Amino acid sequence: MTLLFIVAWLVLTGGFCIVNSMYVGSSLPAICYGLLTGCITVGFALYEKKRRQRLLSDVRKVLEGRDLFAVEESEIAPLARQLRLKRGEEEARDRRVTESYRSLAALVSDIAHQCKTPLTAAKMYAELLPASPESAAIAQQTDKLAFLLDALVKLSRCEGGLIEENVHPAENFIETLAAQALSAVVPGAGMKSISLSADIPEGLTALFDPRWTAEALGTILDNAVKYAPEGSEIRVAAQRYDRYIRLDILDEGPGIPEEELPEIWKRFYRGKTVRDASGVGIGLTLCRMIVQAQGGRVLCENREGGGCRFSIFLPAE
């Protein structure tokens, strides 16, 4: 467009020279030339402004994800078409990476599950052997390998997006959920003489996936048993609100420093006062992801007099 303006200006200048040679001494040619040049300059400036505004509008539509196919192809700025093409390529690449990552996470989880069967058999054979340092070492190493595989399964679930795809909330009884989770920690609680109790209203229901939610609740109960002192009590209680069911897990352990309460949900976080090495800091992260995937939330606070209260909120309807 700049080239056309220069050509037009040269043509008008040549015309002015010719007219001026014919009407020497007259001011009319100069006035006409000035008016024409001014009109062309203003017209060119307005056209450039309109063209830039249309270009910016097309770019804005692309960035906002609006459809540009309603506009004629000739009216779409080249930059806008390039941005749309680039955005499509980026989205396709992100989808491929996400699908590949989920497939890898599912494969890792399956392999880890398959390894548990031979590990259980190896541990059983080690227990059948006569007592010796060798058999004790075999049992110790199989326990360590089983722990690492369990951590690997949990990590693959957190990283691979498997929770959101496999959690299917439905109406279930809270009493059944609590009984299932408590039964898994009975042996550990018995070894420390910890009493377990539940205060669940009869017939209380909520929307949750029984298998996944039992794992989330079991993680909290397992931590409570691990850190609670011998001879203490762990209690599970539930109550109904308008839209949520609140499930509380109360223990009499040492509690958690206030500055660490927001940090305990982070992946691989280990408390500064924790001396037990039997954990990698994934359990509470997985617990929170499971509850949030069902439209709920989980909180933790210290109780007056000692201990913690973990609260799981599940949709009531």
Chart the SSEs and their pairings.
Layout: H1 2-22, H2 28-64, H3 78-128, H4 133-160, H5 162-166, E1 170-173, H6 174-191, E2 195-199, E3 205-208, H7 210-227, E4 233-240, E5 244-250, H8 283-293, E6 297-302, E7 308-315
Parallel strand pairs: 2-4
Antiparallel strand pairs: 1-3, 4-5, 5-7, 6-7
Helix pairs in contact: 1-2, 2-3, 3-4, 4-8, 6-7, 7-8
What does this structure look like?
The chain is built from 8 helices and 7 strands; from the N terminus they run H-H-H-H-H-E-H-E-E-H-E-E-H-E-E. By secondary structure, it is an alpha+beta fold. It folds into 3 domains: 2-76, no CATH class; 87-165, Helix Hairpins (Orthogonal Bundle), CATH 1.10.287; 167-315, Heat Shock Protein 90, CATH 3.30.565.10. The protein has a 5-stranded mixed β-sheet with strand order 2-4-5-7-6, with helices on one face. It has a two-stranded antiparallel ribbon with strand order 1-3. The mean pLDDT is 76.
